[in-house]
Amino acid sequence: MKREHFVKVVEETLDSLPQEFRSRIRNVAVLVEDVPRRLSILLECAQQSLCGLLAISGVEAGLQIAGWLHRGLNAESVATAAATRGVEVTALIRYRQGAAVREGLQLGFAAVDSREIRRGVRELAIALENELKTLHSNGSSACR
């Protein structure tokens, strides 16, 4: 939705309130958050930094997004490693009963600013690389 249309919808909504409520509304400010921009920043940073270790799902709506882990990585271990680097992600297995078909993470992006998204992706990349190195004792990397 374009900003001009959004402003019009908000004005019409406020105007449609019953007079007794409208008369009590004072100093109202409508803040517009640019969630799609945050998602695009997350997707761009993930493409640049995650080196195929985490494939972001194609869904482009909402406040969170799923990422599918490189084969062999364990979502719970990655979530723990990310937490030690100050990044909060959730293993998707927490939302499923039974065995996971595929290991994945839930990434939130709407509640943080673009700087924090960039930092989070960098730190998540380090956590993923470290987990992969642990998985492969020879130290090989999916980013080569």
Write a brief structural summary.
With 144 residues, the protein is of the alpha+beta class. It has helices at 3-15, 19-22, 35-49, 75-84, 114-135, and strands at 54-56, 64-69, 90-91, 104-108. Helices cover 44% and strands 11% of the residues.
What does this entry look like structurally?
Residues 140-144 have low confidence and may be disordered. This protein has helices at 3-15, 19-22, 35-49, 75-84, 114-135, and strands at residues 54-56, 64-69, 90-91, 104-108. A 4-stranded antiparallel beta sheet has the order 1-2-4-3, with helices on one face. By secondary structure, it is of the alpha+beta class. It contains 5 helices and 4 strands. The protein has 2 domains: 1-32, no CATH class; 35-135, Aspartate Aminotransferase, domain 1, CATH 3.90.1150.10. The chain is elongated, with a radius of gyration of 20 Å. Helix 3 runs parallel beside helix 5 and helix 4 (75-84) crosses helix 5 (114-135).
- Overall, the morphology is elongated
CATH class term of the largest domain: Alpha Beta
As an assembly, this protein is single chain
- What would CATH call the homologous superfamily of the largest domain? Aspartate Aminotransferase, domain 1
Radius of gyration over C-alpha positions, nearest whole angstrom: 20 Å
Number of helices: 5
**How many domains, in number, for the residues?**
2
By secondary-structure content and strand pairing, the structural class works out as alpha+beta
| Strand ordering within the main sheet | 1-2-4-3
Helix-strand string: HHHEEHEEH
Q: Helical content, roughly?
A: 40-55%
The CATH architecture of the largest domain is Alpha-Beta Complex
First CA to last CA: what distance?
Answer: 41 Å
Unreliable stretches, pLDDT < 50, 5 or more residues? Answer: 140-144
